[in-house]
Amino acid sequence: MMSWECASAAAIGTAHVERDGVCQDRCSSRVFDQSGTKWVAVFVADGAGSAQHSELGAELAINTANESIAQLMHLAEFSLDESLAVQIISDIRQAIAFAAEGSGLPTRSFACTFLGAICSAAGTIVFQIGDGGIVLDAGHGLELALEPKNGEYANMTHFCTDADALKNLQCRIYPAGVKAVAAFSDGLQRLALDMARGEPHVPFFEPIFRKVAGLNEVTRPQISGALESFLGSTRVNERTDDDKSLAIAVLRA
């Protein structure tokens, strides 16, 4: 019987540690059940460094997206198309707007990027607003699903809270299930991607996917801590000083 193994973790960047900051990344990887049909949802949100409460925006985004998927599981069927991505982003925007109104702050104070992958044997949808990346194996080896999107100027990107957020929403549909998927924030782009080619750096992903695929009752509770330790390791911090988040799902027999 096929089943999903999941793992996710985030680690603060050294630049944020030096400024006595907090980790502004959030992520999750969860399995959902729709009357016996298994779905996996992988989400990553990266809070804007310039926004006062961006870590709260990122957390709201992840929690809201998972709540949206949980509600969909009660339906007999739903469309696996761009309208699903639009619904989730709209739900996130509404949740952030409500939080902003309650705190008397502009929604920009909660700015974050968002990346999502929703997969089952029936198909896969990936979508994102902003930078970071989604890498998956749809049966032809690892590929970068969507090109990370930056803003008009260097070191800028798009956020869920932007007025034109839905115009900057990228979406791609795969008509079949995938074998493995990983979403990550822009703090990992230099390690996870061959930026010149716009392709995944396979040696980065292969050992992680193998580790997740081989989880058992003993190692499964330890994987999130191990992944967080890896993201916060000297090996990774030598390549990036930003927050890092990584959410993974692997289909195993």
From TrEMBL:
Top-level lineage group: Bacteria
Identification of the protein by name: Protein phosphatase 2C domain-containing protein
PPM-type phosphatase domain: residues covered: 12-213
InterPro entries, per the entry: PPM-type-like_dom_sf, PPM-type_phosphatase-like_dom
